Request: fold
Amino acid sequence: MIVVKSKLVLGATAAVVAAVTLTSAGIHLSHSYAFFRADPRDLIDEVWQIVNYNYVDGTFNQADWQAIRQDFLGREYSDRDAAYSAIRDMLDKLGDPYTRFMTPDEFDNMRIDTSGELTGVGIQLGQDKDTEALLVVSPIEDSPAFKAGVRAKDTILKIDGQSTEGMDINDAVKLIRGPIGTSVTLTVAREGDNGKTTALDFEIVRERIELHPVRYSERPSPEGTVGYIRLTQFNGNASLEMREAIESLEEKGVVGYVLDLRSNPGGLLLSSVQIARMWLPSGTIVSTVNRSGEVDRQRANGTALTDKPLVVLVDGGSASASEILSGALQDNDRATLVGVKTFGKGLVQSVRHLPDGSGVAVTVAKYLTPSGRDINKQGIAPDVVIDLTEQQREFLAENRDRIGTEEDPQYAKALEILRERVAEAGRSPASASSR
Reply:
């Protein structure tokens, strides 16, 4: 498994898993069982029908959707790839970057990512913006690459003997991925403490990997131990791991929490609702509105795991499901938001599995925060604004272990505010759930 990331971790607008973007989070998964016959136009028409009946905007961005169908079905297509290209052109008429077509490989990558399990070697792969060298951002903990000794900042020189010079990240991903039990040899360059660079070979056997989106720890403060929880995406494991984190930290007697949603591009809508219920004792979490004006309102259900003070870290990479959660906590006066304005993706996609193994993500609804805010393209403004300088971003990108420490200015501010909230809660127990 390979996670491809921007060189700058904080403030990135998207994280990529096996070359599939996650900024379309807030998705539902569903399946289409219509028969795909030999004519590529059948696939084009199926996608058109899905959009016709489900797209959030009944005007189709002022496009004549019926005429578009006639146009694309009136053409001749030599093969499936030509049909794929036509589908992308057709969807472009909507002017919606989140309604998109996925090839079978892209659809499988998206499905695997949201499930929280995949197969491979387990590295986060980036590309130097200046040299275009392929870099290991970090090996995923307990993955085959981690156990083999691959380290953050290693430069990948060869994959099974093939030079990576000038290689696109997607091409590298295809070479590194493979079936369980097979192996791949990575040749990396590593700079030692003496400043000398050494070439190392790692033969790594691919395994099934479970993605762990939650990391948590205890942090000391004068007011008592603080719980720090970092949530990197809302996949199928997120709610269970969040529950385990909160319950563990509660048992250890923490006095409050910092929840880090920075650079979290979203994921499953259900996961965000489940996690919101762990923090909110009551109130609305999110409302969804489709093109018919029907509203589905998700509420807290009295199952909150803690009422202790909470500060949430957000940035421009906090999108979709992250905005659902942070907006719910802010509007219900449950948490103080610290950082910079979020990405501004207030749309919900339904992902359909097409008969040939490809897929299509269609925007079917928009969501509103409890106070009725439509945050699409607007984002959520934090209660306390603190940005990072370019130098600070570079430092944290190169020193990932410092994220969520007092060398991280946004975290340091969050901790300062949390200490104030804890002190307030100590003076007045009834204020423990307030901002």
About this structure: The two ends are 40 Å apart (CA to CA). The chain has three domains: 27-101, 117-210, 214-433. The chain has a mean pLDDT of 85. DSSP finds eleven helices and 23 strands in the chain.
